[in-house]
């Protein structure tokens, strides 16, 4: 099993550009999450999903949209990137509420 | 604001000593989890403690949970250089069992 994978690993955007980050998991997990981590900080929850076709807002959802059209994929979109969105983005999945999260390797995003 | 807050923010100890990190949270939880993050890497799950548990052990790790004080501690005994990393607590709310919120982390440095 590949576990949780993220695409791309690194991306540079100009202010105002859009992009989509892809998270994929092959563990048949119901729950998936997108976090951002700024330097020296903890992870902040952006959006999460409790199943295919469902999404919910986390702590810092503004400026981001998500979709969970397939159980194994969770997409994070930035419609109009801003320098404040420069961060490392982590995706995670878990099987159930009393389980542990499995994290992807992260996507480094730089917005100029 | 984040649900979990770690204390101290940074800790530097001699190899072989014990390291203790604390986590405080604000609302009722379903469970609390501890994760480790090596520099530039993703998060790795260490241990999960449920709200009805008071103490849990895993190898050199000991976690305690005091729900009356809304706090948890992570003890790493006989520290090693490889333990150098950032440690995060994450809480799963009892009202929203799929929402996982991370604290700001403790940066642990082990001096040889």
Task: Outline the secondary-structure elements.
The complex is a heterodimer of chains A (112) and B (112).
Chain A: E1 4-7, E2 10-13, E3 19-25, E4 31-37, E5 43-49, E6 56-57, E7 65-67, E8 73-78, E9 87-94, E10 102-103, E11 107-111
Parallel strand pairs in A: 2-11
Antiparallel strand pairs in A: 1-3, 3-8, 4-5, 4-9, 5-6, 7-8, 9-10, 9-11
Chain B: E1 5-7, E2 10-14, E3 19-24, E4 29-37, E5 43-50, E6 55-58, E7 61-66, E8 71-76, E9 85-93, E10 100-102, E11 106-111
Please explain how this structure is put together.
- The complex is a heterodimer of chains A (112) and B (112).
- Chain A is mainly beta.
- Helix content of chain A is 0%, strand content 49%.
- In chain A, the strands form two sheets. In chain A, strands 2, 4, 5, 6, 9, 10 and 11 form a seven-stranded mixed sheet that branches. In chain A, strands 1-3-8-7 form a four-stranded antiparallel sheet, with no helix packed on it.
- Chain A starts with a strand and ends with a strand.
- Helix content of chain B is 0%, strand content 58%.
- In chain B, the strands form two sheets. In chain B, strands 2, 4, 5, 9, 10 and 11 form a six-stranded mixed sheet that branches.
- Chain B is globular and about 45 Å long.
- Chain B has strands at 5-7, 10-14, 19-24, 29-37, 43-50, 55-58, 61-66, 71-76, 85-93, 100-102, 106-111.
- The chains are: A mainly beta (112), B mainly beta (112).
Oligomeric composition of the shown chains: heterodimer
Low-pLDDT runs of chain B: none
Biggest sheet details of chain A: 7 strands, mixed
Mean of all residue-level pLDDT scores of chain A:
93
Gyration radius of chain B (Cα, Å) is: 13 Å
Silhouette of chain A: globular
Fraction in helix of chain A: under 10%
Q: If helices are DSSP runs of H or I spanning 4 or more residues, what is the number of helices of chain B?
A: 0
Q: On the 0-100 scale, what is the average pLDDT of chain B? A: 91
SS-derived structural category of chain B: mainly beta
One letter per element, helices H and strands E, the order of chain B comes to EEEEEEEEEEE
**Biggest interface found:** A-B, 25 and 26 residues
Taken from the alpha-carbon principal axes, the silhouette of chain B is: globular
Number of helices, counting only DSSP H or I runs of 4 residues or more of chain A: 0
Strand content of chain B: over 45%
Q: Name the beta content range of chain A.
A: over 45%
Poorly predicted regions of chain A:
none
Through-space gap between termini of chain A: 36 Å
